[in-house]
Amino acid sequence: MTVEVDIEKKFYGRKNRKWKEKKPSFSMHCSFDTDSEFAVLFGCSGSGKTTALRCIAGLENPDAGTIRINDKLYFDSKRKINLPPQKRKIGYMFQENALFPHMNVRQNIEFGLKGLGFMEKASRVDEMLGLAGIEELEFAYPGELSGGQKQKAALARALAPSPEVLLLDEPFSSLDTVVRLKLRKELRAIQRRLEVPVIFITHDPVEAFTMADRIVVFDNGKVQQLGSPEDVFYHPKTRYVAELVGFSNLFDDAVVERHGQRDECTFLWSLGTEITAPYIRRMAGDRVSWGIRPENIELVNSENAHSIRKEDRKNLLNGVIRNIVNKGTSRIMSLKLKESEAILNVEVTNHIFDSLKIGTGEECMVRIRTSDMIVF
Amino acid sequence: METLQLIISPLLLTLKIATISTLFVAVLGLLIAYLLAKREFPGKRLADILFTLPVVLPPTVTGYILVLLLGKNGILGSIFFAITGGGILFTWQAAAIAAFVVSLPLMVKTASSSIGAVDRSVEEAARILGRNEFETALFITIPLAKKGIIAGCVLSFARAVGEFGATLMVAGNIQGKTSTMPLSIYGAYQAGNNELANLLVLILIAISLITIAATSKLGEQ
User: Fold this and answer.
1) Contact A98 B143 (CB under 8 A)
2) pTM for the model
């Protein structure tokens, strides 16, 4: 599948529209193309990802630009092409299932099979019921279904007309964790079986990471980064993306001191100490930001600190534990650093935490591995 | 025998006028309600006010405006005269038009609010599943807004049955021709025929009760 989207859309607040002001309250300009099987549009709410999806489906009209799917032009503002939603071969799953409440599951699935004969329709519906694993619910009405069952029915309905692409707008966000995990797996399995390309929206980093072949990160109506899950999660290019994918330790106070020999690293002055960071092409004296994931910070046993070899003494930070939050499988400790008063979040598994026997108010030494840092 | 005639004639006339008026109200009112609920167009607010006006206006004012429009020199009256060679004022058709005008807003208001309350994403789902706007309205929006639409029809019917002021203005109170139930009650009361007035009142109450019962039955289905 190839999806090429390059669109612009401006939204005007009520007052603006009245006064015909030129300044829009929200402006979206997104451009991305993907030929992957499972693309995820990722970003927080209000970032424009749903608008982009709705434009692809034809539910909203961009102000300008082009939308092309599998070399078929769906929208082109210059050539005045704008296919209505019913002419685009698209499957769409809404956040809140959007099943027809006055029809049972079978009728819901059948609704999109216009033009097929009676027998063909029936067998296609049976096929879809089987695919979604809801054969026994065929005569149930949406009001009688659980949240997970509703979304399965909605998926079966969306897939019945064999769409060229399936668009999903946070379809699992209102479900509980157990059902959500199960449905994610089932969706992925169905997608592989039917080989139908999917564009999926989520604000959940775990969902984005586990489902996607390719991630498109949205913020404020613009595409911030585009790449494989590993790319986006381990090498975020901007501060916004870093924050979104879980770099909760971000520091903007760093200044480039000098570069290491043969440019294998860059020395930064940050947090009141010298930090050895991965090489960055910036001049000495430039301000930069750096970050690290809380789970990548290494605890160092301070008792044998004196025995640490000299070359391992870089990037060691001392702090006092201010508070500890138990996340269930791990604990997040807020460390107030001695040299700079900055707060560093450190995540340790409960297993390690229990063996350390440390608590609030105690001193603690941590190491930041250069290879785990991001600098931009 | 004559009393029976005095009851049957206004009863049938009222039912005829109310039924015909409600048929037109149902079709036209639904269309207007749909457009007001779903479409954005210039002058929408004005249209909204115009369709609400007859509820607020005193019926005699509505009736007076209708007299101006339907009179031989009026816009509608002159067209009617050119086609049929007769006047429309003081006929049962004029009474039906009066009933239509005063009851249309009830249908438009009730139906458009229930059409507007239909979940947008459900309609969008239908569009994406390959249906055009008309099919979506027919199979999804209208069935889901059914209760409000039925309620609008019933209210309009009840309003048409009870119409008095505007009808008196445009159709007069001609016995056997334009004397509907409410007008007959008024006439009987004026003439001191309380017996007849009582009977007519009882019948109107019965019609009202049947309408309410029918609505709740239809709404359940």
Assistant:
1) no
2) 0.83
